[in-house]
Amino acid sequence: MDWEFILEKLLLITVVVTVSLVVAMYATYIERKFAGFIQDRYGPDRAGPFGILQPLADGLKLFFKEEVIPSHSNKLLFVLGPCLAMLTAMMTSAVIPWSSPIEIGGRTVSLQIADINIGILYVFGVVSMGVYGMMIGGWASNNKFSLMAALRGASQAISYELAMGLSLIAVLMLSGSLSLRVITEQQVTGLWNIVYQPLGFLIFFVCALAECNRAPFDLPEAESELNFGYHQEYSSMKLGFFLFAEYINMFISCALIATLYLGGYDMPFVNEANLSGSSAAIVGAVALFSKTFFLILVFMWIRWTLPRFRYDQLMNLGWKSLIPLALANMLITGAVILWTMKG
Fold first, then answer.
1. Is there a domain that residue 55 lies in?
2. C-alpha pair distances (Å), 113 with each of 109, 175, 286, 290
3. CB 3.0–4.6 Å: which of 192, 321, 329, 330 could bond 263 by disulfide?
């Protein structure tokens, strides 16, 4: 048994989980500052210099709040719901290549937890499981508003997963592989997929907003209609798990968009072949995180500038607009590939 390999993977898992949690924590701070800027106010500015310690204060507040489990709830499922939401949010990052391999102590270490040849299928499988956390939490609360919000969230996720999957088929037709590492390497040596698939990128981006329950697709948490949504009966760290899971999902979704369409860890105007293994890995990681953080800011900008859809508008957009567009994009891509092969 290769203990060094196991230790490498355990260390990489620890780093990825820690980074995901830290990014989720400070995404809340950045979003509140961003909202304050757009609304011409300061945002959080009391906890630490410029409010930089506000995420820690919020985390401690949630951790030390009273743990309340409603007497009329299904207690086992009530606890399982947020745990499942958090687990599936963290598992999605396992197949993302964070950079090219790095040289450490004479060993070549892959900065990817699991390089499996069905990485895209793994992501969709885990994402579809995340719906169960929302549904279980809403149903176990034994609250009609929570249940209605959970049903909204589940139907929304299922609807937009179809368009998202269809938009990805075009990328898979171009790359000929389900491995995220292979898809990234092809973009490093050639053009980014957004050049070949601008419509597919737009469809995937809109579907990612809906999958993460971000405005204008935040119908499961419509405060004015559903009294805070599917987690209104939750308190303390169970509520924290649901909220953290949403921000982790946003981070991983943006990393996935950057990997599939924006070249992954490819740095524009930099020839990684002229760099050493470690230097290329560092440059690649900086490139991927820069693209990811830029997309996170776009997510936040959309939230604080666009109004929320009505639910019928949300469903019409998914079923009557995005799915037909994704199908057309897939057929056009297939036709172009066949024409190119014959030519």
1. no
2. 10, 21, 18, 20
3. 192
Give a yes or no: residue 24 inside a domain: no
pLDDT digits (tens, 9 = 90+) for 180-193: 999 999 998 889 99
pTM of the model: 0.93
User: What is the rounded end-to-end Cα distance, in angstroms, of the chain?
Assistant: 50
Q: What tens digit of pLDDT does each residue of 130-186 get?
A: 889 989 999 999 888 888 888 888 899 989 999 999 999 999 999 999 999 999 999
Q: Which amino acid is at 327?
A: L
Q: How far apart are alpha carbons 68 and 80 in whole angstroms?
A: 15
| Residue 108 parent element (H or E) | strand 107-109
Pair of tokens at residue 256: 């996935």
Check if the beta carbon of residue 295 is closer than 8 Å to that of residue 165.
Answer: no
- The DSSP output letter for 161 is H
Phi, psi of 110, deg, nearest 5? -80, 130
- Residue tagged 């500038």 (tokens): 305
Look up the domain containing 230 and give its range: 63-102+114-342
210 part of a folded domain:
yes
- Note whether 87 and 93 are within 8 A (CB): no
Number of domains in the chain: 1
How far is residue 249's CA from residue 242's CA, in Å, rounded to a whole number?
11
**Could you please report the per-residue DSSP string of 186-245?**
HHHHS--HHHH-HHHHHHHHHHHHHHTT-TTS-GGG-HHHHTT-TTTT--HHHHHHHHHH
